[in-house]
Model the fold of this input.
Amino acid sequence: MPELPEVETIKRGLERKLIGQKLKNIEIFDSNYLLKNKVKNLNIIVGEKLSSIKRKGKYIIFFFEKNLLLFHLGLTGYFLFIEKNELDKGKKHIILIFEFEKEPFGYFDIRTFAKIKKVKVEEFSTLKELKKLGKDALEINLDEFKSIFWQRNRGVKNLLMDQKVISGLGNIYVNELLFRAKINPFKKSRDLREEEIERLFFQMKSLLGEAIDLKGSSIKNYIDTEGKKGEFQKTFLVYGKKGFSCPRCGNDLKYQKIAQRGTTYCPNCQSI
DNA sequence: TTCAGCCTGTCG
DNA sequence: CGACAGGCTGAA
Done:
């Protein structure tokens, strides 16, 4: 799925073209999808202007005048500026098209793990999806970051992947982050020295910053709102490098499931 | 804290 | 054909 850098890229792409525009129509192609998401009367948003778009963790929120739409793109959800008549060329998995005054864009979801929700703007602060999120990885400060590790004692990878603890990081960026910071993914959070936590913190910030600059990572499906792939995957040091050797020390990288997710790390550079 | 399950697609 | 894939939920 899109993780923080991809969601941020998508958010910026939408923002650039849509803020202030009025939604003229919603063309629904998969009403069953909306049914499964318990979204009713989506069309009441038609006629409203889009006032802002926000991101928290991996969620994107569209603020209209009276209603808001909350999206989580799951593993394979994406937005693409596209016209209805362009849909034929192999564009499957279309859920709907938001027809704005100038820029219509489609919402697609290949594996249907993405989520959409519509509520009144005033219900924003009550959204349980957002309330349970930990601080956004771009916003968290060093002191808050330290307390994350000291307040519980869990495996570091597990902890960083937990959106309730810190939001925005996913499997790609945690793999890369742990390698960059030379931290073993199994290491218990309370066993981290303060200096190691600081290393993680600053590496996390620069990793996310670089990834956003390169418009995210495209492994298979991810494309931005213009249909372009990201570039950050070209810089991967360990993610997806199963069977390769460590770019730092040359030892064999190790691959195993940690926290139910494929994990590649260097047992030498990232020793306990 | 684990783990199947939700889906579709691709790769070996 | 099985294994695996940017995520998350809820049940055991």
User: Anything to note?
Assistant: Residues 1-3, 6, 58, 72-76, 111, 113-115, 161, 163, 170-173, 216-222, 239, 261-262 of chain A lie near DNA strand C (CB under 10 Å from a C1'). The first strand of chain A starts at residue 23 and ends at 28.
